[in-house]
């Protein structure tokens, strides 16, 4: 059912309410007192102040893809940004201005008309808002940095209902904090990003190997990406081969290893760089070919439908030696659910060359980012087995992690994990900035940064 756009506020009895409160993770079933469908910053401010006046808690709905379901809140006010999804590309200045409720699929389509892109999510339905504020990891991050590395300016509704700008020049403390600090500091109604030359045709796709080759593939890939150029974006996923036409009949439904590639440089260079990876094995299925960048950005869409049950965790890896590969493979295979994807993403490149203190997000030097994505049919009877499976894998990988999780990839694992994600110094600085911009923690329905007890002067 479509959500009616003519009705600005939806309450439980309204048509479209159930559709509007739905989020990506089918385990989440929250019932806001009302859902305020905002179309601009003034409406966001009004919706926020009305909720505060009534003493109601608020949530912010960007694209609804947080696995914690933080977009919706029981008995509170959901400030829904999905109608603020305008996209304006200034190809000459190489800048993108985009609404806080837009999704990556539409953004990629618009920027690619000009052969430009900003690092975006690997599934096209993901929201720009939550992903960018959590820093934003995508296939071209080694080439163009994380999403937040390209942020130039943001229009923000603050906890006290003001509309302010944040950039290097205006409110630099706020600008520092929103690049990785998530939705803790205000509601971003518009982002302006720097754009980079990408595509429109890139060498991209997937190499698929049988599951029994997982250890060899991971070891080869680890060394291959570590030495690779910035333009090489890649990840490996331990999956179950889908029942798709491109998969040979006997391999379908069996454990498999997918190496995903997005090469952001020229095609001839890409063919040359990728030759060793292609020749290694060789793969059971080679889907690596020149294709539109927007197609690479949608490669994982079919495997990530909305409404399934999800439990996610992850960690940055400090190293990925053979023993870690062994632990990863033996605890990932066989999975409990054939929909689950245990993913390792390669770091390095441009993202690793940004100063550690440049913004809230750090963790620049971790060579790999582990994303443990358990997904299964929407059946509560299967929940515990999948959660236990994921937790066992998390525990098995502990010896090789940095101890700092990537907040975009984890569920609700408590304030301790949020603090650890930034490290004690950065977390303390974020608490000071939070005390300035949101001293009473209005924006707490998220990966929460607790404000320092006494509001402090700007720290940046
Ligand atoms: C299928 C799938 C694929 C993913 N792939 C990637 C990936 O490739 N790279 C990556 O980095 N992450 C990825 N993620 C994780 C994703 O970035 C985070 O879950 C992110 O929070 C989603 O943003 P959203 O706006 O869709 O979510 P929402 O659930 O709407 O928002 C999550 C929280 O972010 C905050 N927020 C959202 N928008 C705004 C805004 N405009 N202003 C202020 N606060 C806001 C709010 O606190 C909100 O509660 C993926 C998630 C899914 C489900």
UniProtKB/TrEMBL annotation:
Alphabetically ordered keywords of this record: FAD, Flavoprotein, Oxidoreductase
Keyword Oxidoreductase part of the UniProt annotation: yes
Pfam families attached to this UniProt entry: BBE, FAD_binding_4
Co-factor requirement: FAD
Ranges for domain FAD-binding PCMH-type: 28-198
InterPro entries: BBE, FAD-bd_PCMH, FAD-bd_PCMH-like_sf, FAD-bd_PCMH_sub1, FAD-bd_PCMH_sub2, FAD-linked_Oxidoreductase, Oxid_FAD_bind_N, Oxy_OxRdtase_FAD_BS
Annotated GO MF terms: FAD binding; oxidoreductase activity
Entry superkingdom: Bacteria
Spans through the membrane: none
Family affiliation: Belongs to the oxygen-dependent FAD-linked oxidoreductase family.
Name recorded for this polypeptide: FAD/FMN-containing dehydrogenase
Species of provenance: Nocardioides ginsengisegetis
């Amino acid at each position: 059912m479509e959500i009616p756009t003519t009705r600005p506020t939806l309450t439980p009895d309204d048509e479209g309410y159930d559709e509007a409160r739905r989020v990506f993770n089918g385990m989440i079933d929250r019932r806001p007192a009302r859902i305020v469908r905002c179309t601009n910053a003034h409406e966001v401010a009004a919706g926020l102040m009305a909720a505060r006046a009534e003493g109601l808690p608020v949530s912010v709905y960007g694209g609804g893809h947080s696995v914690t379901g933080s977009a919706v809140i029981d008995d509170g006010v959901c400030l829904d940004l999905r109608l603020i999804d305008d996209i304006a590309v200034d190809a000459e200045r190489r800048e993108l201005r985009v609404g806080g409720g837009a999704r990556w699929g539409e953004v990629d389509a618009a920027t690619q008309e000009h052969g430009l892109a900003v690092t975006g999510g690997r599934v096209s339905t993901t929201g720009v808002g939550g992903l960018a504020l959590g820093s934003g990891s995508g296939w071209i991050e080694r080439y163009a940095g994380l999403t937040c590395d390209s942020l130039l300016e943001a229009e923000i509704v603050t906890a006290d209902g003001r509309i302010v700008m944040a950039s290097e020049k205006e409110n630099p403390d706020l600008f520092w904090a929103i690049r990785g600090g998530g939705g803790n500091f205000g509601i971003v109604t518009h982002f302006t990003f720097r754009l980079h030359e990408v595509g429109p045709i890139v060498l991209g796709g997937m190499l698929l190997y049988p599951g029994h080759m997982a250890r060899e593939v991971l070891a080869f890939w680890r060394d291959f990406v570590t030495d690779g150029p910035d333009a090489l974006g890649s990840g490996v996923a331990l999956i179950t081969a889908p029942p798709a036409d491109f998969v040979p009949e006997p391999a379908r439904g069996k454990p498999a290893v997918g190496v995903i590639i997005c090469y952001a440089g020229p095609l001839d260079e890409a063919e040359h760089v990728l030759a060793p990876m292609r020749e290694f094995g060789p793969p059971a299925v080679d889907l690596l070919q020149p294709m539109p960048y927007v197609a690479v950005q949608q490669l994982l869409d079919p495997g990530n439908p909305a409404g399934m049950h999800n439990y996610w965790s992850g960690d940055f890896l400090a190293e990925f030696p053979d023993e870690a590969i062994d632990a990863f493979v033996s605890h990932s295979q066989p999975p409990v659910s054939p929909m689950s994807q245990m993913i390792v993403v390669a770091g390095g490149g441009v993202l690793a060359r940004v100063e550690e203190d440049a913004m809230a997000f750090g963790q620049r030097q971790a060579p790999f980012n582990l994303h443990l994505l358990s997904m299964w049919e929407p059946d509560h009877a299967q929940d515990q087995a999948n959660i236990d499976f994921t937790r066992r894998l998390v525990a098995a990988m502990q010896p090789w992690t940095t101890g700092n999780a990537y907040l975009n990839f984890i569920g609700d694992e408590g304030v301790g994990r949020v603090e650890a994600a930034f490290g004690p110094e950065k977390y303390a600085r974020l608490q000071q900035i939070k005390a300035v911009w949101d001293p009473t923690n209005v924006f707490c329905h998220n990966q929460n940064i607790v404000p320092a007890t006494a509001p402090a002067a700007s720290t940046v």
